[in-house]
Amino acid sequence: MKSSRLMLCGLLFASLAGxxxxxxxxxxxxxxxxxxxxxxxxxxxxxxxxxxxxFTYSAAALRSPFQPPVKIDLVNRPKGSxxxxxxxxxxxxxxxxxxxxxxxxxxTLSNDGGMFALVNxxxxxxxxxxxxxxxxxxxxxxxxxxxxxxxxxxxxxxxxGWLERPRSxxxxxxx
Length: 175
Known about the structure:
- By secondary structure, this protein is α+β, with helices and mostly antiparallel strands.
- Helix content is 17%, strand content 27%.
- It contains two helices and seven strands; from the N terminus they run H-H-E-E-E-E-E-E-E.
- Strand 1 and strand 2 (114-121) form a beta hairpin.
- The longest helix has 18 residues, at 2-19.
- The protein is elongated, with a radius of gyration of 44 Å.
- The N and C termini lie far apart (98 Å).
């Protein structure tokens, strides 16, 4: 029994002695020798700082490259007439001082006096009727119903004449 224990201890010692041989760590020892051989304080310098150059995007006002180009057909373009022109002598109404795009139809009212439309924009909700003016392009209200407001605008055609352009403001639900 003692001899078997002694033999077991001998085998264990022999196996552990094999782990301590330096032949297994030759590559590690070579790397450590190389690191120790390097000169002291040989840190690479920092890279040179490149100053930021500001870039101004100058094509912001151009057509989006993702939309097809607009083809203007000069022959079929509507021509204005000298008979159609805005009445410069009439007194401007309050809602003519704003673009028509800022207004949204939010409802209607009706009574014995007729039908009125409610438009939201220009700092509040305004009541308008047929014949009132809306927007900067002399937009006169032609008709009001529960779903929309029909407006006719008088706009310049670019050649000294004026064109009548119909527009409508649809009812905005759930506003």
